[in-house]
Amino acid sequence: MGHSRLHETFDAIAATRETGQLPLVVFDLDSTLFSTAPRNLRILEEFVARHGSGEPRLREVLESVSLEDMGWNIHDTLMERGLTDPALLKALRGFWFARFFTDEYVTSDTPTPGAVEFVNHCHDAGALIYYLSGRHVGGMEQGTVRSLTDHGFPFWRGRCVIHLKPTFEMADRAFKDDALADIRSYRSPVVATFENEPGNANLFLGAFPDALHYFLETVHSPEAEVPHVELIRGVDFCLPARA
Ligand SMILES: [Mg+2]
Known about the structure:
Elements: H1 7-18, E1 24-28, E2 34-35, H2 37-51, H3 56-64, H4 74-80, H5 86-100, H6 103-106, E3 110-111, H7 115-124, E4 128-136, H8 141-150, E5 160-165, H9 172-185, E6 190-195, H10 198-207, E7 212-216, E8 232-234
Parallel strand pairs: 1-4, 1-6, 4-5, 6-7, 7-8
Antiparallel strand pairs: 2-3
Helix pairs in contact: 2-5, 4-5
Bound molecules: magnesium ion.
Residues 28, 30-32, 196-197 line the site of magnesium ion (MG).
C-alpha cells in the first residue's frame, strides 16, 4: 500500500496464531485483488470493432485511452471524451452489460501489483483466506476460480474460502450482510479486510472493530459513501522494504 502498514497484517496473523486461534483475512476481488481495467478495455475494443464504422470518433477515442483511463464503467470514459449520442451510449451499455459479468471476460482482469505475493504470504503465515465478492454464481464463478488459480493466488491448498453472490439479482447489501454472518460463523478473529468500496470497508470496520481495515483507493462506484478516517488507505499490495 505504499507504506509500512501492510506489514501490520502479518503481525496480526502471528499474534492471533500465538493465541491458538485461526486468523481470518478477507479480500474483495474487483478493484481490490484484481484490476477490472483490462476487462473494461477489452469490451470497449470489441464494441469499437463492431460499431466503429458507424461512428468514426469511436476509433479516435479508443486510440486515446489506456488502461489507466478505465474507471468504474466505460460509458463515463466515452462521455468524458465528448461522445454523448444517447443511442450509441445505450448500445454500449447493453454491449458492456452482456459481457462484463461473465466467466469469459472476467479472466481478462489482472492482479493488483503485489497482490499475489501478499495473499500467499498471509496464507503461508497461517491465515484463512476469505475471498468475498459480489461476482455471482451462475455466470462468473468458473472464470473467477480460473483467474485466481492461473495468477497463483492460494486456492487448492486448504484454508481458502470463496464466497460469491448466490444470484445476479441479489442486492449487494443483503449479500454483504449474509457474508458477515458467514464470516462470524467461523468463531475466529478477523485480523484484516481489504476493500475498494468505501461502504463495504465502513461495514467491516463496524462489524470487526479489532481488525485492520484497508481501503484501496482504486476505483469505486459513483454513489459511494465517505470512507471512515480509521481505514488504512493505499493503492496496491506492494510491500516497502522493512526497516
Ligand atoms: Mg471491489
